[in-house]
Amino acid sequence: MMVRGYQLEAEVVGGATGNGLSGMGRRRAAGRRAMGLRTAIALLVAGAVLAMAPDRAARAADLGAAAAPAPQPQAESGWQYQATFYLWATGIDGDVGIRNLPRIPVNITFGDVMENFQGAIMGNFLAKKDNWTLFADVFWSQLGSSKTLSTAGAPVVDFNQRLFILSGAAGYRLPVGDADFDLSATAGFRYQRLSANTSITSLFVPFAVSEADSKDWLDPTFGLALQWKLNKQWFVNALADVGGFGLPASSKLSSQGLIAVGYNWNDSWSTALGYRALYTDYQSITSPTRDFRYNTTMHGPFMSIGYHF
Length: 309
Known about the structure:
Blueprint: H1 2-67, E1 80-88, E2 91-98, E3 104-108, H2 110-115, E4 119-129, E5 132-148, E6 156-173, E7 181-202, E8 205-229, E9 234-243, E10 253-264, E11 269-287, E12 290-308
Antiparallel strand pairs: 1-4, 1-12, 2-3, 2-12, 4-5, 5-6, 6-7, 7-8, 8-9, 9-10, 10-11, 11-12
């Protein structure tokens, strides 16, 4: 009995123990299944979030780009400008007649001019875009000279002039050469105003005979202009024109020519040396005592400094 009781007790205890362990296992299994389900759901949600993250970032970047558009480059005008100051060492050859005085030969060298030099203003401005070139030139000077003529009585001629010249022209590039060889046909004007004073003193005349007058005229001009870039630094400029043509209020003939070789020191500054000549044949006869004749050539070397912008 004791053995049987022991066995019964053992069976009872063992049954109770076995039943208790089975309940706990079921609860643990259920917990593991619930945890596994929650873990799977969390992984699915995390995966979906990660999958959507690049698309959201891309959308955010697109919205940011739309909110802040890229700056547009400013359009350039295309115009190029150059302001130039120059010194023209002019001499004068020809003859001048004022009122009742006979034509007086004029041969004034630059050295003669400098002896009686009273001032000068010289400069020009150029604007260029595509095939078009516009330019203007201003020249003002006051010159004088005194000469002794090799005729009877050795008369002394004093000649002084104030000359103002304003020129302007437009040029269009001709289809010749390459991009560095710019040859343009030009059309424009040249306005001149001359105030001249001439006096003659002779041993046979105890007093001086003098006359003074002022005239101005406007000449249409046509010509050619060359801008030739030899390389990045060196260049050649040339200009030739003709005008007047005997039109009313114009000269019989006026022509100009210049050539210069220059050097670009940088993108802003350049210098040039050259030679320039201007021929004018003008005559105005309004009465027997109002005769004005001016047939001269101004010529000489020049040097310039230009600013490009």
